[in-house]
Design a protein that fits this description.
The complex is a heterodimer. Chain A has four helices and nine strands; from the N terminus they run E-E-E-H-E-H-E-H-E-E-E-E-H. By secondary structure, chain A is of the alpha/beta class. Chain A has a five-stranded mixed sheet with strand order 5-4-3-8-9. A two-stranded antiparallel sheet of chain A has the order 1-2. Chain A has a two-stranded antiparallel sheet with strand order 6-7. In chain A, helix 1 links the parallel strand 3 and strand 4. By secondary structure, chain B is an alpha+beta fold. Chain B has seven helices and five strands. In chain B, helix 4 packs antiparallel against helix 5. Chain B is globular and about 50 Å long. The two termini of chain B are about 25 Å apart. The chains are: A alpha/beta, B alpha+beta. Chains A and B meet through helix 1 and helix 4 of A and helix 6 of B.
Chain lengths: ~190, ~180
Amino acid sequence: MSAKAEAGSTQQSRKNGGGKKAGGHTEKLLQPGTEAPDFTLNSTPDQTVSLSEFRGQPVILAFYPADWSPVCGDQMSLYNEILPEFHKLGAELLGISVDGSWCHAAFKDARNLQFPLLADFEPKGEVCRMYGAYRDEEGVAERALFVIDKDGKITWCYCSPVGVNPGADGILSALEDLHEPAGKESA
Amino acid sequence: MSDGQLKPAVNERDHVEGPEDAPVTLVEYGDYECPHCARAYPIVKEIRERMGDRLRFVYRNFPLREAHPHAEHAAEAAEWAGESGKFWEMHGALFEHRSDGPDWLDDDRLLQYASDLGLDPNDLERALMEERYRSRVRTDFMSGVRSGVNGTPTFFINGQRYDGNWDLPELLDALEGAGAAR
Protein backbone atom coordinates (compact mmCIF):
# COMPACT_ATOMS: atom_id res chain seq x y z
CA MET A 1 0.00 0.00 0.00
CA SER A 2 1.37 3.36 -0.85
CA ALA A 3 1.46 6.07 1.77
CA LYS A 4 -1.85 7.73 1.28
CA ALA A 5 -3.85 10.51 2.83
CA GLU A 6 -6.76 9.63 4.98
CA ALA A 7 -10.04 11.23 4.16
CA GLY A 8 -10.02 14.97 4.36
CA SER A 9 -6.41 15.37 5.38
CA THR A 10 -5.77 18.13 2.89
CA GLN A 11 -9.12 19.78 3.06
CA GLN A 12 -8.30 22.27 5.76
CA SER A 13 -10.07 25.54 5.28
CA ARG A 14 -7.98 28.61 4.76
CA LYS A 15 -10.52 30.73 6.56
CA ASN A 16 -9.33 29.69 9.98
CA GLY A 17 -5.74 29.34 8.92
CA GLY A 18 -5.63 25.62 9.15
CA GLY A 19 -8.23 23.97 11.28
CA LYS A 20 -8.26 21.27 13.88
CA LYS A 21 -8.79 17.99 12.13
CA ALA A 22 -8.44 14.72 13.96
CA GLY A 23 -4.92 13.39 13.93
CA GLY A 24 -3.08 16.63 13.24
CA HIS A 25 -2.38 19.28 15.83
CA THR A 26 -2.66 22.47 13.84
CA GLU A 27 -3.83 24.36 16.93
CA LYS A 28 -0.52 23.84 18.73
CA LEU A 29 1.49 25.42 15.91
CA LEU A 30 2.41 29.09 15.80
CA GLN A 31 -0.70 30.62 14.32
CA PRO A 32 -1.32 32.93 11.35
CA GLY A 33 -0.70 36.55 12.20
CA THR A 34 2.34 35.64 14.29
CA GLU A 35 5.80 36.95 13.40
CA ALA A 36 7.81 33.94 12.18
CA PRO A 37 10.75 33.47 14.58
CA ASP A 38 14.09 33.82 12.84
CA PHE A 39 16.54 30.91 12.90
CA THR A 40 19.84 29.87 11.42
CA LEU A 41 20.38 26.21 10.58
CA ASN A 42 22.86 24.18 8.58
CA SER A 43 21.75 23.42 5.03
CA THR A 44 24.95 21.50 4.30
CA PRO A 45 27.77 20.45 6.63
CA ASP A 46 29.51 23.80 6.03
CA GLN A 47 26.72 26.22 5.05
CA THR A 48 23.93 27.79 7.01
CA VAL A 49 20.61 29.35 6.02
CA SER A 50 18.71 31.99 8.01
CA LEU A 51 15.02 32.64 7.59
CA SER A 52 15.70 36.40 7.57
CA GLU A 53 17.67 36.01 4.32
CA PHE A 54 14.35 35.51 2.55
CA ARG A 55 12.70 38.70 3.80
CA GLY A 56 10.91 40.27 0.82
CA GLN A 57 9.56 37.01 -0.57
CA PRO A 58 7.21 34.31 0.68
CA VAL A 59 8.73 31.25 2.33
CA ILE A 60 7.26 27.79 2.80
CA LEU A 61 8.53 25.88 5.83
CA ALA A 62 7.92 22.14 5.58
CA PHE A 63 8.72 20.45 8.88
CA TYR A 64 8.79 16.66 8.57
CA PRO A 65 9.64 13.83 10.97
CA ALA A 66 12.60 12.14 9.30
CA ASP A 67 14.69 11.67 6.20
CA TRP A 68 14.19 8.26 4.58
CA SER A 69 10.85 7.30 6.06
CA PRO A 70 8.51 6.39 3.17
CA VAL A 71 5.89 9.07 3.69
CA CYS A 72 8.46 11.84 4.04
CA GLY A 73 10.13 10.65 0.87
CA ASP A 74 6.86 10.88 -0.99
CA GLN A 75 6.07 14.29 0.44
CA MET A 76 9.47 15.78 -0.37
CA SER A 77 9.47 14.19 -3.84
CA LEU A 78 6.07 15.73 -4.48
CA TYR A 79 7.25 19.18 -3.38
CA ASN A 80 10.32 18.78 -5.52
CA GLU A 81 8.04 18.24 -8.47
CA ILE A 82 5.90 21.27 -7.66
CA LEU A 83 8.90 23.51 -6.97
CA PRO A 84 8.50 25.39 -10.30
CA GLU A 85 4.95 26.31 -9.26
CA PHE A 86 6.14 27.53 -5.86
CA HIS A 87 8.81 29.59 -7.60
CA LYS A 88 6.25 31.04 -10.03
CA LEU A 89 4.43 32.31 -6.97
CA GLY A 90 7.68 33.87 -5.78
CA ALA A 91 8.15 31.49 -2.87
CA GLU A 92 11.14 29.56 -1.55
CA LEU A 93 10.71 26.15 0.07
CA LEU A 94 12.74 25.02 3.08
CA GLY A 95 12.47 21.49 4.46
CA ILE A 96 13.30 21.06 8.15
CA SER A 97 13.84 17.96 10.28
CA VAL A 98 16.02 16.98 13.22
CA ASP A 99 18.30 14.89 11.01
CA GLY A 100 21.93 15.99 10.75
CA SER A 101 23.31 17.72 7.69
CA TRP A 102 25.23 14.67 6.43
CA CYS A 103 22.05 12.64 6.59
CA HIS A 104 20.20 15.41 4.75
CA ALA A 105 22.94 15.49 2.12
CA ALA A 106 22.57 11.78 1.41
CA PHE A 107 18.76 12.00 1.39
CA LYS A 108 18.77 15.01 -0.93
CA ASP A 109 21.11 13.27 -3.27
CA ALA A 110 19.11 10.05 -3.32
CA ARG A 111 15.85 11.88 -4.07
CA ASN A 112 17.42 14.52 -6.29
CA LEU A 113 15.79 17.22 -4.17
CA GLN A 114 16.30 20.74 -5.51
CA PHE A 115 15.53 22.69 -2.34
CA PRO A 116 17.40 23.06 0.97
CA LEU A 117 16.90 20.63 3.82
CA LEU A 118 17.77 22.27 7.13
CA ALA A 119 19.16 20.36 10.09
CA ASP A 120 17.46 21.22 13.38
CA PHE A 121 20.05 19.01 14.97
CA GLU A 122 21.82 20.93 17.74
CA PRO A 123 20.27 21.88 20.08
CA LYS A 124 17.99 19.17 18.82
CA GLY A 125 14.55 20.33 17.70
CA GLU A 126 14.99 23.91 18.91
CA VAL A 127 13.45 25.48 15.82
CA CYS A 128 10.70 22.86 15.70
CA ARG A 129 9.81 23.81 19.28
CA MET A 130 9.79 27.55 18.46
CA TYR A 131 7.14 26.83 15.83
CA GLY A 132 5.15 24.45 18.03
CA ALA A 133 6.06 21.65 15.66
CA TYR A 134 7.97 19.21 17.87
CA ARG A 135 6.79 15.76 18.91
CA ASP A 136 8.15 15.26 22.40
CA GLU A 137 7.23 11.59 22.52
CA GLU A 138 9.29 10.64 19.47
CA GLY A 139 11.78 13.50 19.48
CA VAL A 140 11.08 14.46 15.87
CA ALA A 141 9.33 17.27 13.98
CA GLU A 142 5.64 17.24 13.29
CA ARG A 143 4.56 17.06 9.68
CA ALA A 144 3.78 20.76 9.74
CA LEU A 145 3.53 23.38 7.01
CA PHE A 146 3.86 27.15 7.30
CA VAL A 147 3.52 29.87 4.71
CA ILE A 148 5.33 33.07 5.67
CA ASP A 149 4.72 36.29 3.75
CA LYS A 150 7.36 38.72 2.47
CA ASP A 151 7.22 40.66 5.73
CA GLY A 152 8.04 37.60 7.80
CA LYS A 153 4.55 36.97 9.13
CA ILE A 154 2.92 33.55 9.23
CA THR A 155 -0.18 33.58 7.04
CA TRP A 156 -1.11 29.89 6.99
CA CYS A 157 -0.21 26.73 8.83
CA TYR A 158 -1.30 23.13 8.80
CA CYS A 159 -0.29 20.11 10.82
CA SER A 160 -0.92 16.77 9.16
CA PRO A 161 -1.35 13.47 10.97
CA VAL A 162 2.23 12.23 11.16
CA GLY A 163 1.69 9.29 8.82
CA VAL A 164 -0.14 11.30 6.18
CA ASN A 165 1.40 13.18 3.30
CA PRO A 166 -0.51 16.51 3.30
CA GLY A 167 -0.01 17.15 -0.40
CA ALA A 168 0.59 20.63 -1.77
CA ASP A 169 -2.83 22.04 -2.46
CA GLY A 170 -3.02 23.94 0.83
CA ILE A 171 0.36 25.56 0.25
CA LEU A 172 -0.54 26.67 -3.27
CA SER A 173 -3.84 28.14 -2.11
CA ALA A 174 -2.11 30.01 0.72
CA LEU A 175 0.51 31.39 -1.67
CA GLU A 176 -2.19 32.47 -4.11
CA ASP A 177 -3.95 34.25 -1.29
CA LEU A 178 -0.83 36.37 -0.78
CA HIS A 179 -1.24 37.60 -4.34
CA GLU A 180 -5.02 37.78 -4.33
CA PRO A 181 -6.34 38.58 -0.87
CA ALA A 182 -9.86 37.94 -2.20
CA GLY A 183 -8.85 34.29 -2.31
CA LYS A 184 -9.76 33.61 -5.89
CA GLU A 185 -9.21 30.03 -6.93
CA SER A 186 -7.24 29.59 -10.10
CA ALA A 187 -7.35 25.80 -10.18
CA MET B 1 -8.80 24.50 -1.66
CA SER B 2 -9.19 20.79 -2.10
CA ASP B 3 -11.98 18.98 -0.37
CA GLY B 4 -11.06 15.72 -2.02
CA GLN B 5 -13.03 16.68 -5.13
CA LEU B 6 -11.69 16.00 -8.58
CA LYS B 7 -10.81 19.26 -10.33
CA PRO B 8 -11.49 19.58 -13.16
CA ALA B 9 -14.22 16.96 -13.57
CA VAL B 10 -13.87 14.33 -16.26
CA ASN B 11 -13.96 16.12 -19.61
CA GLU B 12 -13.26 15.76 -23.32
CA ARG B 13 -9.48 16.00 -22.79
CA ASP B 14 -9.47 12.83 -20.73
CA HIS B 15 -8.70 9.30 -21.79
CA VAL B 16 -11.91 7.49 -21.06
CA GLU B 17 -12.92 3.88 -21.33
CA GLY B 18 -16.53 2.90 -20.71
CA PRO B 19 -19.86 4.58 -21.38
CA GLU B 20 -20.39 8.22 -20.51
CA ASP B 21 -23.60 7.36 -18.62
CA ALA B 22 -22.03 4.58 -16.54
CA PRO B 23 -23.21 4.77 -12.92
CA VAL B 24 -19.64 4.75 -11.63
CA THR B 25 -16.62 6.71 -12.80
CA LEU B 26 -13.18 5.70 -11.52
CA VAL B 27 -10.34 8.15 -12.12
CA GLU B 28 -6.76 7.11 -11.45
CA TYR B 29 -3.79 9.45 -11.17
CA GLY B 30 -0.78 7.30 -11.94
CA ASP B 31 2.90 7.11 -12.80
CA TYR B 32 4.13 4.39 -15.17
CA GLU B 33 7.35 3.93 -13.22
CA CYS B 34 5.66 3.71 -9.80
CA PRO B 35 5.67 0.19 -8.34
CA HIS B 36 2.38 0.81 -6.53
CA CYS B 37 0.71 1.80 -9.80
CA ALA B 38 2.11 -1.34 -11.39
CA ARG B 39 0.48 -3.35 -8.61
CA ALA B 40 -2.80 -1.48 -9.10
CA TYR B 41 -2.83 -2.04 -12.87
CA PRO B 42 -4.06 -5.67 -12.90
CA ILE B 43 -6.52 -4.87 -10.11
CA VAL B 44 -8.09 -2.08 -12.12
CA LYS B 45 -8.04 -4.25 -15.22
CA GLU B 46 -9.90 -7.01 -13.42
CA ILE B 47 -12.44 -4.51 -12.10
CA ARG B 48 -12.98 -3.09 -15.58
CA GLU B 49 -13.69 -6.60 -16.84
CA ARG B 50 -16.02 -7.46 -13.98
CA MET B 51 -18.02 -4.25 -14.02
CA GLY B 52 -18.21 -3.86 -17.79
CA ASP B 53 -20.52 -1.08 -18.89
CA ARG B 54 -21.31 -0.10 -15.34
CA LEU B 55 -17.87 1.49 -15.06
CA ARG B 56 -16.24 4.42 -16.79
CA PHE B 57 -12.46 4.48 -16.23
CA VAL B 58 -10.25 7.52 -16.67
CA TYR B 59 -6.47 7.71 -16.35
CA ARG B 60 -4.57 10.93 -15.69
CA ASN B 61 -0.79 11.34 -15.52
CA PHE B 62 0.99 12.09 -12.29
CA PRO B 63 4.67 11.42 -13.06
CA LEU B 64 7.08 12.15 -10.22
CA ARG B 65 9.86 13.05 -12.60
CA GLU B 66 12.65 13.60 -10.11
CA ALA B 67 12.03 10.32 -8.31
CA HIS B 68 11.16 8.38 -11.48
CA PRO B 69 13.38 9.54 -14.33
CA HIS B 70 11.51 7.55 -17.00
CA ALA B 71 7.98 8.40 -15.91
CA GLU B 72 7.69 11.62 -17.90
CA HIS B 73 8.63 10.13 -21.27
CA ALA B 74 6.43 7.14 -20.58
CA ALA B 75 3.47 9.45 -19.93
CA GLU B 76 4.27 11.47 -23.05
CA ALA B 77 4.46 8.25 -25.09
CA ALA B 78 0.99 7.24 -23.92
CA GLU B 79 -0.36 10.69 -24.84
CA TRP B 80 1.34 10.43 -28.21
CA ALA B 81 -0.26 7.03 -28.86
CA GLY B 82 -3.56 8.55 -27.79
CA GLU B 83 -3.40 10.88 -30.80
CA SER B 84 -3.69 7.75 -32.95
CA GLY B 85 -6.43 6.26 -30.82
CA LYS B 86 -4.07 3.86 -29.07
CA PHE B 87 -3.76 5.39 -25.64
CA TRP B 88 -5.03 2.32 -23.80
CA GLU B 89 -2.86 -0.05 -25.80
CA MET B 90 0.25 1.96 -24.89
CA HIS B 91 -0.97 2.36 -21.31
CA GLY B 92 -1.16 -1.42 -21.00
CA ALA B 93 2.22 -1.96 -22.63
CA LEU B 94 3.93 0.50 -20.28
CA PHE B 95 2.71 -1.40 -17.23
CA GLU B 96 2.90 -4.92 -18.63
CA HIS B 97 6.49 -4.71 -19.88
CA ARG B 98 7.70 -3.91 -16.38
CA SER B 99 8.39 -7.62 -15.93
CA ASP B 100 10.91 -7.47 -18.84
CA GLY B 101 13.54 -5.93 -16.60
CA PRO B 102 14.73 -2.63 -15.18
CA ASP B 103 15.12 -0.88 -18.56
CA TRP B 104 11.51 -1.36 -19.62
CA LEU B 105 10.85 2.39 -19.82
CA ASP B 106 14.07 3.40 -21.58
CA ASP B 107 13.41 5.55 -24.64
CA ASP B 108 14.36 2.79 -27.09
CA ARG B 109 11.89 0.47 -25.41
CA LEU B 110 9.16 3.10 -25.75
CA LEU B 111 9.92 3.28 -29.48
CA GLN B 112 9.68 -0.50 -29.65
CA TYR B 113 6.24 -0.44 -28.03
CA ALA B 114 5.21 2.14 -30.63
CA SER B 115 6.32 -0.22 -33.41
CA ASP B 116 4.52 -3.11 -31.73
CA LEU B 117 1.31 -1.06 -31.92
CA GLY B 118 1.83 -0.35 -35.60
CA LEU B 119 2.74 3.28 -34.95
CA ASP B 120 5.71 5.24 -36.28
CA PRO B 121 8.56 5.14 -33.77
CA ASN B 122 10.36 7.97 -35.54
CA ASP B 123 7.47 10.27 -34.85
CA LEU B 124 7.44 9.25 -31.20
CA GLU B 125 11.15 9.99 -31.00
CA ARG B 126 10.55 13.47 -32.42
CA ALA B 127 7.58 14.03 -30.11
CA LEU B 128 9.69 13.18 -27.07
CA MET B 129 12.54 15.38 -28.27
CA GLU B 130 10.22 18.31 -28.99
CA GLU B 131 8.41 17.75 -25.68
CA ARG B 132 5.23 17.82 -27.74
CA TYR B 133 3.08 16.36 -24.97
CA ARG B 134 4.88 17.82 -22.00
CA SER B 135 2.37 20.56 -21.19
CA ARG B 136 -0.49 18.11 -21.57
CA VAL B 137 1.14 15.81 -18.98
CA ARG B 138 1.87 18.76 -16.71
CA THR B 139 -1.75 19.88 -16.91
CA ASP B 140 -2.80 16.44 -15.68
CA PHE B 141 -0.19 16.61 -12.93
CA MET B 142 -1.26 20.01 -11.64
CA SER B 143 -4.94 19.04 -11.76
CA GLY B 144 -3.95 16.18 -9.49
CA VAL B 145 -2.12 18.49 -7.10
CA ARG B 146 -5.15 20.77 -6.91
CA SER B 147 -7.43 17.77 -6.36
CA GLY B 148 -5.36 16.72 -3.35
CA VAL B 149 -3.34 13.96 -4.98
CA ASN B 150 -0.34 13.34 -2.74
CA GLY B 151 1.13 10.22 -4.27
CA THR B 152 0.37 7.49 -6.75
CA PRO B 153 -1.89 5.83 -7.37
CA THR B 154 -4.68 8.09 -6.17
CA PHE B 155 -8.22 7.15 -7.10
CA PHE B 156 -11.39 9.22 -7.36
CA ILE B 157 -14.79 7.53 -7.37
CA ASN B 158 -17.54 9.65 -8.90
CA GLY B 159 -15.40 12.73 -8.39
CA GLN B 160 -14.56 12.14 -4.72
CA ARG B 161 -11.09 11.08 -3.60
CA TYR B 162 -11.02 7.47 -2.44
CA ASP B 163 -8.61 7.01 0.45
CA GLY B 164 -9.42 3.42 1.28
CA ASN B 165 -7.59 0.22 0.53
CA TRP B 166 -7.44 -0.49 -3.21
CA ASP B 167 -6.91 -4.21 -3.14
CA LEU B 168 -9.40 -5.90 -5.44
CA PRO B 169 -12.21 -6.76 -3.00
CA GLU B 170 -12.13 -3.38 -1.24
CA LEU B 171 -11.97 -1.25 -4.38
CA LEU B 172 -14.66 -3.33 -6.06
CA ASP B 173 -16.88 -2.96 -3.00
CA ALA B 174 -16.38 0.79 -2.98
CA LEU B 175 -17.21 1.04 -6.67
CA GLU B 176 -20.27 -1.20 -6.43
CA GLY B 177 -21.38 0.84 -3.42
CA ALA B 178 -21.02 4.08 -5.36
CA GLY B 179 -22.99 2.54 -8.21
CA ALA B 180 -25.78 1.36 -5.93
CA ALA B 181 -26.04 4.82 -4.36
CA ARG B 182 -26.91 6.26 -7.75
